[in-house]
């Protein structure tokens, strides 16, 4: 027991000595060396009193999160003085109450009493300076008082240390007491809410109403037992439910995709903090109150929490425009509050975190935005104002007007002809109305928004696997239009890695000419007059002159894992490692020469039509250009991409059509301003982005080519049926299957088409070009004409061609599902399925099957759709109004042959198209 007590006492004494030493700062400096007079007394009293709570990480903190929050909001010397006065009294407790006795009998002064007495004097002096309006004026001496106040705040109230930081064991406790820096995620929209929103679509609402009316009318007007009369209306409602569920499911999945993207961005935002005397990297979300951060304009451009600046600071100036709107830089001195969300523009310093998460200034703003729901995802939605959406919106409006006109004509003609002959039948009127609304549903490209969303999401996911982190989905398609890339050189075209290429020692010059050979390996193989003692001395000199900020990490096999610090110093550290040593260094060995490793321009390969402009090279004219000035050089018709890694690049990244920031070398403010982050800092990844951007346009065009062909053929078929027999040969539920369900599957299949390398050999997409090219128009009109001809032949001549087949319109009057109309439906669907394969090609390529089996998702969906069609025809007689016994084998063969006819029609169309093009060129 005695040994245990002695051991505990010794441990406490050791801990107290360590803390006292750390508070006096590194180098065993005397407390009076940094401050004088009152300040030295305060520092000494801190050192003598702080050890009383050592070892007890559960001891209450003398300050609360709300009190620290007041300092963040007020940000005046008076607010800091009040916080110190109250906090130190709380810290001193009963030991600090009798401060009068401490003046009368210095021998009886406790550490807490001395601290409280000294802090009271410090607070009085700060208030005196504040009343005079002198504040931080160096001549008035306010700088020292505020510096000391920040030191008291850090060491006493927050139980931290400017040199050693916090105890890692306290991290979770601090998170519980002062809050977490991770803001609560924006509340996800529930699946039911998304279903409710999807059900508000006008066409779907009309179909739901008419489906319900159909059930009621058929049940009340049907002669005899009504066992199946409700089926068609129920099938319409079921189809609408499927569409709503699919739409809501896609939107629900999209929310999780944005969460994953947000998580990736947060994980890439790391900061260096000091804990237990060691500098470690943590994510923004892991930062807690009391953490010590080193701030400068490069490695901590974006401040992750509210902080107080500690001394000494080197001309630190902050850009607070993101919070205040003021563009001028704000000079900061020790004791000043630095707000989260602001940016370090110049200078450097060290600061202590005082408020995180919702307790910080920017956190409170974000929390209010989330609560009110007035929030636009900073991770980009679909970009409703992007060129692609503008074009598609224009197409959808025109198609909608055409569909409305066709539906109105179908309904009016059916009523005039049908009701005039058969009398005022409520049941027939409902049938005509259902047919008209179905024509409208077919005409409107319901699958188009789905295709766009899927294509953008698919591209962004694939780009992530190829080292492109897409922050805004619309950046994918905008990159497909990019015509010019503005780039700086260092860190973008070059690796921003310095390499030692020569060593001069003992009148011997070791110079490496071959870039594939490292200096260390060259010296080891050509030592000559350099013996091991000399090499060891070189390594020792580098080691002795070292700092902790520059370090290389290697695994057991000698492979470099990571590095941090000055690039020039890292080059020397590589030499030390190659010479078989392991050390950290600070200053350059004076006889080493370093050269930047650059990428020759002739090795840069860009996509066709995508120009690289090195505006910010080391040329006299360009040296004087600000980064954003480079964007102004290009005319408005250009779509400009900008790459950058520095804080000074941020305005240009924001102004450019697409901004690329370096993921490794880039500053946080550059990443915040960018649309896409190059995770591996590889300039070649921009070509990957261009390829996927162009593929987004190609995928949408493929789906448009397929969807509009279906729409044209189906609308004409429905109109002809309405004009001749007052009914469409394709029942309403069949048209819904073709348009709403099958097209949704087609949008997924075509959106997942991988980009072809040939896309890079073509010029970028012009913003003013139509989404529908001449090739596409020729294929759509040709295929639609073929399908309409086939359907018309089967409709009017089918019973004559196939012996024993009864006309469908006659059996329809007797409420019998005919083989005639089932054959038309089956043939129509198979023509769409085979044409879907054709639609993978936009330029009339001869081999329509090229690359088909490189996309398992496409042929998997195609096979699934084909199987579903077969099941519908054979077993869906009641729900889908097909023949009760399905189709005979001969009718299946006819349907398949007619469907396969889409392939030769495709070749004929493009043969004539090419001949027409040749004649046009010849005539010019």
Automatic annotation (TrEMBL):
<feature type="transmembrane region" description="Helical">
    <location>
        <begin position="892"/>
        <end position="916"/>
    </location>
</feature>
<feature type="transmembrane region" description="Helical">
    <location>
        <begin position="816"/>
        <end position="835"/>
    </location>
</feature>
<dbReference type="Pfam" id="PF00122">
    <property type="entry name" value="E1-E2_ATPase"/>
</dbReference>
<protein>
    <recommendedName>
        <fullName>P-type Ca(2+) transporter</fullName>
        <ecNumber>7.2.2.10</ecNumber>
    </recommendedName>
</protein>
<dbReference type="InterPro" id="IPR004014">
    <property type="entry name" value="ATPase_P-typ_cation-transptr_N"/>
</dbReference>
<keyword id="KW-1133">Transmembrane helix</keyword>
<dbReference type="GO" id="GO:0046872">
    <property type="term" value="F:metal ion binding"/>
</dbReference>
<feature type="region of interest" description="Disordered">
    <location>
        <begin position="1"/>
        <end position="36"/>
    </location>
</feature>
<dbReference type="InterPro" id="IPR001757">
    <property type="entry name" value="P_typ_ATPase"/>
</dbReference>
<feature type="compositionally biased region" description="Basic and acidic residues">
    <location>
        <begin position="91"/>
        <end position="108"/>
    </location>
</feature>
<keyword id="KW-0406">Ion transport</keyword>
<dbReference type="GO" id="GO:0016887">
    <property type="term" value="F:ATP hydrolysis activity"/>
</dbReference>
<dbReference type="GO" id="GO:0005388">
    <property type="term" value="F:P-type calcium transporter activity"/>
</dbReference>
<keyword id="KW-0106">Calcium</keyword>
<dbReference type="InterPro" id="IPR006068">
    <property type="entry name" value="ATPase_P-typ_cation-transptr_C"/>
</dbReference>
<dbReference type="GO" id="GO:0005886">
    <property type="term" value="C:plasma membrane"/>
</dbReference>
<dbReference type="InterPro" id="IPR023299">
    <property type="entry name" value="ATPase_P-typ_cyto_dom_N"/>
</dbReference>
<dbReference type="InterPro" id="IPR008250">
    <property type="entry name" value="ATPase_P-typ_transduc_dom_A_sf"/>
</dbReference>
<dbReference type="GO" id="GO:0005524">
    <property type="term" value="F:ATP binding"/>
</dbReference>
<dbReference type="InterPro" id="IPR036412">
    <property type="entry name" value="HAD-like_sf"/>
</dbReference>
<feature type="compositionally biased region" description="Basic and acidic residues">
    <location>
        <begin position="1"/>
        <end position="17"/>
    </location>
</feature>
<feature type="region of interest" description="Disordered">
    <location>
        <begin position="91"/>
        <end position="111"/>
    </location>
</feature>
<keyword id="KW-0460">Magnesium</keyword>
<keyword id="KW-0813">Transport</keyword>
<keyword id="KW-0479">Metal-binding</keyword>
<dbReference type="Pfam" id="PF00690">
    <property type="entry name" value="Cation_ATPase_N"/>
</dbReference>
<keyword id="KW-0812">Transmembrane</keyword>
<feature type="transmembrane region" description="Helical">
    <location>
        <begin position="202"/>
        <end position="221"/>
    </location>
</feature>
<dbReference type="GO" id="GO:0012505">
    <property type="term" value="C:endomembrane system"/>
</dbReference>
<keyword id="KW-0067">ATP-binding</keyword>
<dbReference type="InterPro" id="IPR018303">
    <property type="entry name" value="ATPase_P-typ_P_site"/>
</dbReference>
<feature type="domain" description="Cation-transporting P-type ATPase N-terminal">
    <location>
        <begin position="149"/>
        <end position="219"/>
    </location>
</feature>
<feature type="transmembrane region" description="Helical">
    <location>
        <begin position="703"/>
        <end position="725"/>
    </location>
</feature>
<feature type="transmembrane region" description="Helical">
    <location>
        <begin position="233"/>
        <end position="253"/>
    </location>
</feature>
<feature type="transmembrane region" description="Helical">
    <location>
        <begin position="856"/>
        <end position="880"/>
    </location>
</feature>
<keyword id="KW-0109">Calcium transport</keyword>
<keyword id="KW-1278">Translocase</keyword>
<dbReference type="InterPro" id="IPR023214">
    <property type="entry name" value="HAD_sf"/>
</dbReference>
<dbReference type="InterPro" id="IPR059000">
    <property type="entry name" value="ATPase_P-type_domA"/>
</dbReference>
<feature type="transmembrane region" description="Helical">
    <location>
        <begin position="433"/>
        <end position="458"/>
    </location>
</feature>
<feature type="transmembrane region" description="Helical">
    <location>
        <begin position="399"/>
        <end position="421"/>
    </location>
</feature>
<keyword id="KW-0547">Nucleotide-binding</keyword>
């Amino acid at each position: 027991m005695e040994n245990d007590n002695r051991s505990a006492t010794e441990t406490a004494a050791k801990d107290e000595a360590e803390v006292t030493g750390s508070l006096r700062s590194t180098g065993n400096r005397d407390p009076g060396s940094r401050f004088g007079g009152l300040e030295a007394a305060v520092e000494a009293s801190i050192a003598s009193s702080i050890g009383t709570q050592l070892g007890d990480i559960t001891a209450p903190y003398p300050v609360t999160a709300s009190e620290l929050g007041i300092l963040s909001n007020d940000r005046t010397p008076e607010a800091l003085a009040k916080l110190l006065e109250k906090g130190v009294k709380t810290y001193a407790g009963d030991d600090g109450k009798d401060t009068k006795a401490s003046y009368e009998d210095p021998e009886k002064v406790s550490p807490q009493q001395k601290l409280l007495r000294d802090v009271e004097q410090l607070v009085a002096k700060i208030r005196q300076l504040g009343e005079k309006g002198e504040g931080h004026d160096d001549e008035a001496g306010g700088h020292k008082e505020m510096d000391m106040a920040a030191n008291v705040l850090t060491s006493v109230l927050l139980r931290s240390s400017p040199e050693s930081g916090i105890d890692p064991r306290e991290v979770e406790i601090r998170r519980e007491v002062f809050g977490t820096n991770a803001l609560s995620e924006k509340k996800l929209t529930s699946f039911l809410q998304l279903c409710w929103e999807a059900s508000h679509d006008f066409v779907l609402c009309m179909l739901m109403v008419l489906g319900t009316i159909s059930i009621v009318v058929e049940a009340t007007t049907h002669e005899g037992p009504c066992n199946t009369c409700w089926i068609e209306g129920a099938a319409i409602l079921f189809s609408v439910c499927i569409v709503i569920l699919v739409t809501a499911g896609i939107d629900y999945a999209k929310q999780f995709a944005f969460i994953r993207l947000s998580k990736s961005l947060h994980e890439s935002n790391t900061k260096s903090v000091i804990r237990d005397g060691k500098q470690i990297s943590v994510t923004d979300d892991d930062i807690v109150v009391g953490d010590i951060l080193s701030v400068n304009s490069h490695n901590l451009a974006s401040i992750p929490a509210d902080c107080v600046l500690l001394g000494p600071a080197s001309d630190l100036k902050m850009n607070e425009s993101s919070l205040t709107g003021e563009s001028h830089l704000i000079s900061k001195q020790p004791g000043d509050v630095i707000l989260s969300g602001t940016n370090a523009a110049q200078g450097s310093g060290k600061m202590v975190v005082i408020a995180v998460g919702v307790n910080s200034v920017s956190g409170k703003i974000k929390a209010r935005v989330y609560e009110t729901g007035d929030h636009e995802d900073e991770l980009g939605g679909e970009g409703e104002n992007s060129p692609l959406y503008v074009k598609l919106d224009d197409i959808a409006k025109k198609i909608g007007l055409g569909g409305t006109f066709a539906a109105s004509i179908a309904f009016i003609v059916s009523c005039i002809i049908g009701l005039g002959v058969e009398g005022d039948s409520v049941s027939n009127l409902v049938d005509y109305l259902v047919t008209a609304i179905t024509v409208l549903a077919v005409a409107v490209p319901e699958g188009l928004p789905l295709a766009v969303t899927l294509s953008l999401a698919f591209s962004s996911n694939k780009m992530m696997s190829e080292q492109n982190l897409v922050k805004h989905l619309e950046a994918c398609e905008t990159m497909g239009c990019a015509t010019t890339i503005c780039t700086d050189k260092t860190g973008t075209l070059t690796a921003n890695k310095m390499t030692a290429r020569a060593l001069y020692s003992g009148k011997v010059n070791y110079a490496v000419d071959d870039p594939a050979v490292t200096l260390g390996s060259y010296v080891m193989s050509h030592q000559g007059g350099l013996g091991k003692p000399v090499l060891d001395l070189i390594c020792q000199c580098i080691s002795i002159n070292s700092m902790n900020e520059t370090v290389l990490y290697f695994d057991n096999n000698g492979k470099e894992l990571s590095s941090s610090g000055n690039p020039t110093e890292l080059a020397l550290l590589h030499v030390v490692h190659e010479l078989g040593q392991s050390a950290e260094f600070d200053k350059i060995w004076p006889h080493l020469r370093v050269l930047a490793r650059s990428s020759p321009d002739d090795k840069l390969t860009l996509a066709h039509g995508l120009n690289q402009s090195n505006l910010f090279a080391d040329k006299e004219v360009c040296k004087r250009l600000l980064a954003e000035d480079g964007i102004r050089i290009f005319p408005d018709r250009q779509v400009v991409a900008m790459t950058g890694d520095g804080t000074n690049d941020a305005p240009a990244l924001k102004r450019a059509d697409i901004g690329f920031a370096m993921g490794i070398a880039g500053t946080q403010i550059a990443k915040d301003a960018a649309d896409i982050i190059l995770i591996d800092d590889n300039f070649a990844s921009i070509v990957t982005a261009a390829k996927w951007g162009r593929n987004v346009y190609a995928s949408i065009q493929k789906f448009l080519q397929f969807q509009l062909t279906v729409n044209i053929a189906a609308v004409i078929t429905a109109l002809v049926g309405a004009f001749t027999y007052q009914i469409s040969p394709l029942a309403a539920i069949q048209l819904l299957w073709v348009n709403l369900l099958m097209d949704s599957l087609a949008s997924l299949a075509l959106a997942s088409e991988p980009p072809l390398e040939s896309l890079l050999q073509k010029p970028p997409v012009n913003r003013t070009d139509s989404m529908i090219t001449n090739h596409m128009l020729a294929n759509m009109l040709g295929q639609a004409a073929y399908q309409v001809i086939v359907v018309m032949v089967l409709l009017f001549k089918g019973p004559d061609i196939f012996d024993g087949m009864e006309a469908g319109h006659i059996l329809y009057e007797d409420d019998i599902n005919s083989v005639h109309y089932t054959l038309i439906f089956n043939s129509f669907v198979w023509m769409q399925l085979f044409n879907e394969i054709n639609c993978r090609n936009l330029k009339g390529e001869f081999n329509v099957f090229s690359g088909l089996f490189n996309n398992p998702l496409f042929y998997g969906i195609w096979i699934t759709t084909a199987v579903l069609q077969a099941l519908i025809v054979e077993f869906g007689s009641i729900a889908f109004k097909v023949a009760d016994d399905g189709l005979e084998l001969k009718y299946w063969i006819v349907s398949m042959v007619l469907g396969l006819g889409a392939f030769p029609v495709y070749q004929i169309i493009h043969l004539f198209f090419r001949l027409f093009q040749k004649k046009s060129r010849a005539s010019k």
